[in-house]
Structures are given as structure tokens and as C-alpha cells.
Amino acid sequence: MTDFLQAFDLVLLLLKRVLFALAVALLVVFAFDWLVRTRRINPFSPVARFFRRSVDPLLQPIEQRVVRAGGLPSAAPWWALAAVVVGGILLLYALEFVRDLILSAAAAGSQGGVGIYHLLVRWVVGLMQLALIVRVLASWFRVSPYKPWVRWSVTLTEWLLRPLRSVIPPLGMVDVTPLVAFFALALVETALYRLV
Predict the structure, then answer these.
(1) 152 and 131 in contact (C-beta within 8 Å)?
(2) Which of 65, 136, 177, 189 would be 164's cystine partner, CB 3.0–4.6 Å?
(3) b or e along 164-190 (b: 16 or more beta carbons within 10 Å of the residue's beta carbon)?
(4) What per-residue confidence (pLDDT) applies to 136?
């Protein structure tokens, strides 16, 4: 197991360096593309023609979204760079999360049945708390609960929030039941740990 984790860490380190190099390279490419789009570089120069021919078609989907949202087409390179950076950070976070899951599963397996029970309790409560966070964020950004990335959280948490809403009134326009449910889940997790 330690060999696997060392190899995983090595791959993660290499991926971090590759993603950093990619972000720096894209920063340079997108900066030149922005200079071409804003006509700070002569639009008839070979550099401008190269960027219009090879980079602009790649940025067209992002440019369309930026324009639909009310932005300027010249901002598309910066939005593309932000998407690449955020996507890289999320990828690294997901891989580190998977590494931690593997490590915690291995540690739980070495403790026998009690360790596996604690691990399952931690995973179930963590999933429920994540679902509550997704629901809260979706309500803040007014995302429909029927969207695929939100629907799963509604399915997992509605059984818990519905009875709480009948007991706990909203504070002004704020529904505090997700917060109460979040802390109640932490208390349930502690109680379930103490059972075994």
C-alpha cells in the first residue's frame, strides 16, 4: 500500500508541475490573444493572423458564453484562463481527496470491523453534509433543484429538512434548517462513534 501511495504522490506532484506549466503557457497565449482582440497588436500582422486562425476557434464557445452573459468578446481569453486554472485546482483537489479516501480506507481496514464501521459512518455523514452544502449554495445562486447536479442533494436531504422546517421557523427570509441539520449530523456521527 505504501508503494501505491508513493507512486500516487509522485504522479500528483508531476501533475501539479504540468498544470502549473500549462497555466503559465496559456497565460502567455491568452495575453497575446487579448492583445490581438483589443487591437494593441496590428490586426494584419502575422502574429494576429496566427492567433485568429488557431486560437480564436478554440475560444469561440467561451466567447459565446461571455457575450450571452453580457460581457465583451475581448474578455474570452481571460475567462478561458480562469476556467483552466479553476479546473486544474479542482482536479488536484479531487485527486488529493481520492488519496485521502484510499488512506483512510486502508487505515480502517487495518482496525478490523470497528474501523470499517467508523469509516462508513464518517462517509455517510460527510456525504449528507456535502449534500446540505450543495443545497445551500444552489439556493444562494438560485439554481433549480431539478438540475442534475443539485437533484441528488435534494433527494438525500429532504427527509431530514422537511420535519425540521415544521419545527424551526425561518429567521426573516433565511431558512436555518440546513445549518441545524448540519450540526445535528455531526452530533449523530459522534453518537454513532460511541456506540462501538
Answers:
(1) yes
(2) 177
(3) bbeeeeeeeeebebbebbbeebeeebe
(4) 92
Residue 92: predicted pLDDT: 94
Q: What is the pLDDT of residues 148-188, one digit of tens each?
A: 889 999 999 999 999 999 999 988 888 899 999 999 999 99
Q: How many CA atoms lie within 13 A of 104 on its CB side?
A: 14
Neighbours of 135 (CB within 10 A): 22
Beta carbons within 8 Å of 59's beta carbon, 6+ residues apart: 33, 76, 77, 80
**Spatial distance between the Cα atoms of 118 and 122, rounded to a whole number of angstroms:** 6
Domain ranges of the chain: 1-110, 111-196
Cell numbers representing residue 87 in the block: 479546473
What pTM, to 2 d.p., does this model score?
0.72
Which of 38-70 are b and which e, b meaning 16 or more Cβ less than 10 Å from the residue's Cβ?
eeebeeeeeebeebeeebbeebeebbeebeeee
